Amino acid sequence: MINGIMTLSGAWDKLRTDPGLRFSVTAVGFYGMSTFEGPVMSVREVNALSHYTDWT
Q1: Cα Rg for the chain, rounded, in angstroms?
Q2: Could you count the other beta carbons within 10 Å of the beta carbon of residue 36?
Q3: Quick one: DSSP state of residue 13?
Q4: How many angstroms separate the CA atoms of 16 and 9, rounded?
Q5: Contact criterion met (CB below 8 Å) for 5 and 24
Q6: Are the CB atoms for 21 and 27 separated by under 8 Å?
Q7: Which is nearest to 50 in space by CA: 34, 36, 37, 33?
Q8: Cα separation of 25 and 21, whole Å?
C-alpha cells in the first residue's frame, strides 16, 4: 500500500485531471482498509464486540 501511494510523490496534482489515477488511488486506499480489518478483527475484544453483527 505504501508503494502505491508513494508512487505519486511529487505528482499529486495529477489526481485532479486523471480519472484512472483517481480510481487507482481510491482502490489502493480501500485495499489498505480491508487488509487492516483482518488483524483488528483478530483481537479478542473487538471480535467479541462485533461478532454476529452487520459489521462482519
Answers
A1: 16
A2: 11
A3: G
A4: 15
A5: no
A6: no
A7: 37
A8: 6
pLDDT at site 8: 79
The grid coordinates listed for 46 are 473487538
Largest CA distance in the chain: 44
- Give per-residue pLDDT as tens, 13-33: 888 999 998 998 899 889 988
Q: Whose CA is closest to 33, among 45, 43, 25, 22?
A: 25
Q: What is the pLDDT of residue 56?
A: 56
Query: pTM value?
Result: 0.65
CA separation for the pair 50, 56 (Å, rounded): 7
Locate the domains of the chain by residue range. 23-56
Q: Does the structure show a pLDDT above 80 at 54?
A: no
